[in-house]
Design goal:
mainly alpha, Four Helix Bundle (Hemerythrin (Met), subunit A), 9 helices, single chain, flat
């Protein structure tokens, strides 16, 4: 399939998935609506990243960024509320669950989400028009070059033992989504793709535990849980470091 057709097809599927997740969030059918909205928005940004400087792409990329920025604090609060409920901290969980629930309606009706859907509606025709106007010449090569640069950036971070693990988590996440968007242009082995997935999950677990332990210094009702979170964060990071080492080796083998 020509690369422009693949981009349009993926954008259309993500548009449908975003609307479906939004409907679930609005109807409160489950507690994964916001999470799925954010995952699809991140996948959209990964699809657009290699071409985001194009005029017909820039506005959609910016709309996705604004939506993710808007919803990031709420998602953090939602994850914390779920963690508190899991730990049996009922009182702490309920107060945060109430705050999350009241914020759902604001997200569903937000201008940021409305703008994201509007830009997505226009994107396929805008991209086709750019193609007809000759703005997408050598598109495949341009995307491939961007993806290889992204891969090299991650490899350099993996080779630097003191590289910030929060930033490394983001680089890993971006490459994983990039591979999902452009598997033919970013050829990595299945084992490497699996290592990316595991590294993202384990660093994500560490990030959450680390964030909660920090929050507990400012939020007095969380302080009884601080020690548990500090211990869990240390264990999660130790596990992640093993997977990071494996990922480093896998990527080296893929590039040989």
């Amino acid at each position: 399939m020509p690369v422009i057709d693949s981009i349009v097809a993926q954008a259309l599927r993500l548009d449908m998935a975003l609307h479906e997740a939004n409907a679930r969030m609005e109807a409160r059918t489950d507690d994964q609506g916001l999470h799925d909205l954010r995952v699809k928005a991140r996948r959209l940004k990964s699809l657009l990243r290699p071409i985001r400087k194009l005029d017909d792409v820039k506005s959609l990329d910016q709309a996705a960024s604004k939506f993710l920025k808007l919803t990031s604090p709420l998602r953090d609060l939602e994850v914390l509320a779920n963690e508190l409920a899991r730990k049996g901290a009922t009182k702490q969980a309920r107060s945060r669950q109430a705050a999350v629930g009241s914020a759902y309606a604001e997200i569903v009706q937000s201008p940021e989400l409305e703008q994201l859907f509007a830009e997505l509606d226009d994107f396929p025709s805008n991209l086709r028009a750019a193609d007809r106007n000759g703005e997408l010449r050598r598109l495949k090569k341009r995307i491939s070059r961007k993806l290889k640069k992204q891969l090299r950036r991650l490899q350099a971070a993996l080779d630097a033992p003191d590289h910030d693990r929060h930033k490394l988590r983001i680089l890993i996440k971006r490459l994983r989504y990039a591979h999902r968007a452009y598997p033919q242009l970013l050829p990595i082995s299945k084992k490497t793709a699996t290592a990316l997935m595991h590294a993202q999950a384990e660093l994500g677990d560490w990030h959450d535990q680390h964030l909660w332990s920090q929050n507990s210094s400012q939020e007095t009702d969380l302080q009884p849980l601080q020690a548990d979170w500090l211990t869990a964060a240390a264990a999660a990071l130790e596990e992640a470091e093993t997977t990071i080492a494996e990922l480093r080796t896998r990527l080296r083998r893929d590039s040989e």
